[in-house]
Design goal:
By secondary structure, the chain is mainly alpha-helical. The protein has 11 helices and no strands. It folds into 2 domains: 128 residues, Up-down Bundle (Four Helix Bundle (Hemerythrin (Met), subunit A)), CATH 1.20.120; 71 residues, Helix Hairpins (Orthogonal Bundle), CATH 1.10.287. Helix 2 packs antiparallel against helix 6, helix 3 packs across helix 5 and helix 5 packs antiparallel against helix 6. The model has no long low-confidence stretch (mean pLDDT 84).
């Protein structure tokens, strides 16, 4: 089916815009530049944790964070415009959706007024470095795909800790209430034993009670 001339004329500026922005975001310098901005974001966020630095240069650090946010907004707009000829393509990329959510969260009412939420959002911006490092992106995808298997292992471990916690409570709750007062404390004790922390002390205590 042949597109009407009017439709082609309307699409031409959009296609030119998409091509121009695509050349920018796919250029060899764009990703390293954004990675540098993310590194600056991490440095600014870290400096804010020092009370002395925050007291002396807190205003400058907040200004730097606002400038960095502005750069991220421009980057996001460029990436969106690069899909102007096919808008749905932008949302089909999970990393693009993540970037959109992280950047947009900074403008949600109440977030900028809440220091804790604002720092969390700024921290999430650092995670955006994953999309700019191909090897790290591959590792991240591999970790995500391993979550179902790890979740099964965690469920089995929790079941074993619960069973042994119950056994420990039945045997020791009268003699060692500090470690086996109830099922919650018993499970904590069993979890600590799994890490082998203070194992000799627990063995000695068990020998005293036997």
């Amino acid at each position: 089916m042949t597109a009407r001339p009017g439709v082609l004329i309307a699409m031409a500026p959009r296609a030119r815009l998409a091509a121009a922005c695509r050349r920018i975001v796919e250029s060899s310098w764009f990703d390293p530049l954004m990675l540098g901005v993310i590194a600056l974001n991490a440095v600014a966020l870290g400096l804010e944790t020092y009370d002395g630095i925050d007291a002396a240069a807190g205003r400058e650090l907040h200004l730097a964070n606002d400038v960095i946010l502005g750069i991220f907004v421009v980057e996001l707009l460029l990436r969106i415009a690069a899909h102007a000829d096919r808008p749905g393509g932008f949302l089909r990329d999970g990393w693009n959706v993540f970037d959109l959510v992280v950047v947009a969260a900074s403008f949600v009412p109440g977030v900028r007024e809440n220091a804790t939420l604002l720092r969390i959002v700024r921290l999430l911006r650092i995670v955006r470095a994953v999309r700019l490092l191909p090897d790290l992106r591959v590792l991240t995808v591999a970790v995500v795909r391993s979550i179902p298997g790890v979740a099964s292992l965690a469920a089995i471990t929790l079941l074993l800790v619960y069973l042994y916690g119950m056994v420990g409570w039945v045997i020791f709750h009268e003699h060692d209430p500090a470690n086996f007062e109830h099922i919650g404390q018993s499970m904590v004790t069993m979890f600590v034993l799994l890490t082998l922390e203070n194992l000799p002390a627990y063995i000695e205590r068990g020998q005293e009670l036997s």
